[in-house]
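pipeline: protein-struct stage 2 | run 1193 | DUF3987 domain-containing protein
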Amino acid sequence: MAEASRVHALKRQQDAERGRMMAGGYGMMTEEEFWNGSAQRRYVHCYARHLRMSPDSLLGAMLARVATVTPPSVVAPAFTGADPSILALYTAIVGNSGDGKGLAERAARKLIPDLLGAVETLPVSGEGIVSLFAARRPVQDDDGGRYTHDTEPVCIGSRALLSVPEIGSLDAAMSRVGSSLEPVLLSAWSGEPLGGQNVDEAKRLRAPAYGYALNMITGVQPAKSGTLTDRDGAGLPQRFLWCDTKDPAAPSDKPLMPSGTFTFDVDRLREYQPSAMTLNALYRAGARRLMTRPEDGSDPYPLHVLRYPPETEEAVDRDRLMTLRGQRPNGMDSHSLLLTIRVAGLLAILEQRDDLLTVTHDDWRAALWLVSHSIEVRERCITESRNGSISKRADRIADDETARQLASEQTHDAKVQTCMQRIVSKLERDDPNRMGVARRLIQQSLGQRLFREAFTDAINRLEADGIVEIRHGERNGERYALADGITGI
């Protein structure tokens, strides 16, 4: 217990250090400040409480839908000189069976019903994910008439939402021999190009960077969270926003439905969506840098970059400096910071302000709180999963020991039965007058091992059942004889 307390205290210290590092000198929001910090979040909180569900899980599912309606050309800046980042989001809704994981997704769908034509599906394979965005079509001749035998890549969709009710189905798909699903999910979250260099160009499917955005909502039972947490070396669990289905502070009396109507106008994002012609040009070129520029020299595939407050760049710079010095706190990684940047952008879009692409100081602080809370949920989920694994392992060991004991008992009982039958046969054959047979003669007929392991129990049972009688011979030696009327067993 003392060791566990020490570990928890160290974990709290590390979490606090992580929060201070990311928040800089601005301080971390409280939970109350987070939910009351904007009208949109306050509505979500009240709506969830009215439905008797966790506000955390509802907001997580909603942000995944906000990310799904956000075009892949809407990006966060390249703070460290790398490429700009898309706003794709993976949300893990944590809870046991019946805790409301599915309810969160259904409620989010009710508040944000329109995904602007984005595909909503269940992942099956890495190749299947690429085919959500890319296809090939026959090429028309120069006159635009007949189709030739050649094909060219086209974009059939630039946004998709993977809906995984239970993490077990994702585990099954990722665990198949030769499955490429896990690396594709990792690459898609980072916005990297998808698809391989197939030998047959006619079968080659690729989704270029900034030409697609993949988002996901999955339900995670703590006992089965190893599907994600066991892949921490690859960075898979760090890419998720972890949301809890529990709400310990839920009021006893059911709150009223919030007044007014929740408004999220997805049409405001249409103006940033690349046209089908532009997307097809990107898919044919394979990358933005390879696209043909118009005669006026303008960008053939412009990106719409969100504007962040100065403290975001300060947080990125602090993180890079501490990484270079080897001083980054345990548990903190680049994925957590990038996740915070994305969440801040999505929270800003959720607010539906006039300047849709500006992330405010409060948006940034809200994202810091939400991601910090996400890390707490993730670590708690890992702890529950490991405790459950230890408990199951202990149960298996106990079951194995019980099985061994039962097998030993069954083996011994079989030996006793054999010994009983041989004793009775010996007495029937060699002692027809029921005068008794000496113990050493019976021992010789049984063999040393069977006599040693089973004779005592066998003779006691035969005597208790009235089949054999013990008689004392000369010099107090024991002799054994069948009881009157016994002819065998």
